[in-house]
Predict the 3D structure of the following.
Amino acid sequence: MKRILSFDFGASSGRAMLATLQNGKIQMEEIHRFSNDTVIVRGTMYWDILRLFFEIKTGITKAVNSGGFDAIGIDTWGVDFGLIDKNGNLLSNPVHYRDKRTEGVMEKVFETVSRDELYSMTGTQCLRINTLYQLMALKYNEPELLERTEKMLLIPDLFAYMLTGEMKAEASIVSTTNLFDPYKRDWNFELIEKLGLPENIFAPVIKPGSVYGYLTDDICEELGCEKVPVIAVATHDTASAVAATPSLSDDFVYISCGTWSLFGIENKTPILTAEAANANFTNEGGFDDTTRFLKNIMGLWLIQESRRQWRREGKELGFDILEKEALASEPFRCFIDVDDPLFETAGNLPKRVQQFCERTGQYVPQTIGEIMRCIYQSLAMKYKYTFNKLNELGGKKYNRINILGGGIKDKLLCQMTADACNVEVLAGPTEATVMGNIAVAYCALGEIDGFSGIRKAVTNSTELKHYTPTDNSAWENAYQEYIKIL
């Protein structure tokens, strides 16, 4: 029985899961969990990448002591990267996408390549966090760092390099960069040349389900493990989560719900229309040459960061208490645009919610419950707005939404989504990302037969919770007020 060691990195934590495939069902055991804490040094926010690699090694050691494994799969968040010099060494710690170094960079890039031209070349939503703008920030402000760079490796590719010594770029993670050609499924070297970025730093692109390489002899000797393959699963966490959507139909809408809410559909080809560009939808790569047509929406970050602020003020509030406080507050008194730049960076989110409501002439929430009610309802309303756009841009009428990931634990948000969008919501699996990671790895090993086999295995392994609309008329009336603040 082959066993997969899966590493799943989120924005605030990571874990190692050891999996088996039995009777068509994926069985998973968490063997290691760790925090993913950013470090701010002299005003720059970094990922502590060497500590995270230490945690990978710890996970490998625990897996060895649990009976070993036959392959490794790694998925992470998108857009961020490490720079490798000509000697194969990491030049600096990767910078966090929420760092302020990209502020104003998009507008400067548009002087060289317009927003419309960028969309026509990449089909990517314009966000200042994208790899393109991070690299251009280096070009503008730290050109000597780029001059010393031999290869730029996105985070899962960087971890794979540390394990195997092979420098490759998996397509789904590359598709988050704003530098990907969605038709050729390769780096867009025409765009790279226009921007004046060095072409040599971009590693060769490989498909999800390929093999990066095998664990190095040094790693095997240090950790006492076998020389197993490191598989390039769908290494972008959303790509892995979407691969694990428990749907046997090709027509479904998903929300991969976590720190971010990734709201979209799965297509065979990208959608690069002017309407899609105006709506700021993005086209990203998935398993089996699929395209994830989606919108990045600020997600549970708003709730997580609000809770962090209240904890800084000495208020120890669990998520269950925040949910109860929200339910106890009067509905539809005020809304925020969850994607307003005001909410992008860390800080006093509750105060910013109040500032937004005051700026837009609405009732200003005062209590914790009122602020939480405002955030919850605003998220659900943004889902409704996006769902309407998807029906329009996708040219279909969708009647169901699959919510995937840790966000399904938030039952209030799931129910509000059903009420606001007036469709059935299916919640599950909670572990969608790691399940997709594992399923693609099994597919690469020949244990699961293609994409249909992946979806079948996930469906067999998942218990879904159903949410049906209960009071859509009230949401429809409130929606007319909500769209005024967008």
